[in-house]
Amino acid sequence: MDIAADSVQDLFTTGGGGTLGARMGIQLTEASAERVVGTMPVEGNTQPYGLLHGGASCVLAETLGSVGAVMHGQSVDRPFAVGVDINATHHKSARSGVVTGVATPVHRGRTMATYEIVITDDGGERICTARITCLLRGA
After folding, report:
1. CATH code at position 133
2. Which candidate in 30, 34, 43, 62 is catalytic?
3. What one-character-per-residue DSSP string does 15-83 give?
4. Quick check: 28 and 37 in contact, CB under 8 A?
5. Fewest beta carbons less than 10 Å away: which of 53, 56, 59, 107?
6. Considering the chain, what is the average pLDDT of its residues?
7. What is the pLDDT of residues 83-114, one digit of tens each?
8. 8 A C-beta contact, residue 101 and residue 68
């Protein structure tokens, strides 16, 4: 996915770039190298028991962290971010509404960037904590 070639507005329109974010209903509301915020509906992203699918939380987390990494990568002339590690701890379930993810940097280097993503439910309760590390590549 070539996020670096997209304008910031395109990122907002497509839910972070590519088709998966749009298919999941991800909407970016804020994007910078310091903080990326996005939302995703629970409806349509559930597992058979009616709970938000853990994989859906990972898609939201990877999307937000990757956008942050790309935006940081542009400042070090390495505008392409490739995820090399992601992990998530699911603290609580969500059955309805919208979840919100906030990605903030843990490390921003010249070749790697790591972001922590906290996902909360409509009531502001943490449902997932994720971390993604991206390799930053040049054009």
Report:
1. 3.10.129.10
2. 62
3. TSSHHHHHHHT-EEEEE-SS-EEEEEESTTSB-TTSSBPHHHHHHHHHHHHHHHHHHHHHHTT--EEEE
4. yes
5. 107
6. 90
7. 999 999 999 999 999 999 999 999 999 999 99
8. no
Tell me if residue 94 falls in helix, strand or coil: coil
Q: What percent of the chain has pLDDT over 90?
A: 82
Kindly provide the b/e burial profile for residues 31-65, where b requires at least 16 CB atoms within 10 angstroms of the residue's own CB.
Answer: bebeebbbbbbbeebbeeeebbbeebbbbbbbbbb
Residue 119 belongs to what domain range? 3-137
Q: Two tokens at 108?
A: 């921003």
Is 34 among the catalytic positions? no
Single pTM value for the model: 0.90
**Number of structural domains found in the chain:** 1
What are the pLDDT digits (tens) for 14-35? 555 668 988 999 999 999 999 9
